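Quick question, first post here. What does this chain look like in 3D?
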Amino acid sequence: MKLNYVLGRSGRGKTEYILKQIKTLLDEDNLCRILVIVPEQATFRMERDLIEQCDLPGLFNLSVVSFDRLVHEILNACGGRTLSPLDFIGKTMVVRALLDAHRDDLTVFGKSASMPGFEIKMTEMLTELKRQDISLDDLAQAEAMKLPPITRQKLTDIALLYQSYNEKLAGEHMDSEDIISLAIEKADTHNYFNGAHVFVDGFDLLTHQMLRLLTLAISQSVCATISFRKNGGDARDNMVFAPEEKQYIRIDEAAKDLGIRPTEIVLSSNHISDTKYASTELLHLEQNLFAYPFSPYFGAPKDIMLSSQDSQALEVKDACSKIIDLLGEGYRFR
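> Answer (accepted):
Ran it through. Tokens below.
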């Protein structure tokens, strides 16, 4: 088990570093198993960059997946999916039925249960409870705390709906959160990540379920490399990186529980990507937009333009017209 952190601000070359590491692995052994986990919207670009920069004829033992796709691949490889999946609309219908059935039992939510859209909000809440692995025991412990009476009553109502929801789905359906939990169980039993090199890049937020799956990948893989958009030192805009810092701490604590000492690779301003911040103006904006105190830019702006219109719709229309003009001048989308 080996764990690497690639740290740096936006545009410092974290993805490029990962691509180079993958190329090095393939040069040493073109049959080694590599798993690259990126956000759903970044899978196509990562596949394209891998083929172009690593000069690959195709993707053989190299898989580029999102967390959702990874869950499905685990279940396809390890089996275990026997119940029909339930999408968000299906979950909302179940919650609507439960609200009607327990209307008289709900202390606080009884009157609100008939309001339009309430079942959607309740479905979102139950979904988040499952994503964060919050159990009925956790809710019971929260109820036992010294809280205002109205808060305890709300927790009681939530616990009732949560229990009824789980009982309703048991043995008949699986929601997306149940599917993730099943995938984690199957991956653990079948050592799904055994022998693989795992790379994780581009995530802003990890749920508790995703963290459990990632921790399992770290424990089973040959080596795991995770990038964080994280600023080192005492920068003027450290508050911008607070969400990434929380993710970093959670993963680092999980690694310590496994007895792993991670290695940090810090990419400084010397590693600024030529493709993302070729403009000094954009680089200055990235460094000072949320900084306090900020540093003024004294050069004549050429790459940044401000437009003020009477409404947001007109601002968007003006921006689109400028883009079309630039396309006419020879500029192209990346």
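Residues 149-169 form the longest helix (21 residues).
The two ends are 37 Å apart (CA to CA).
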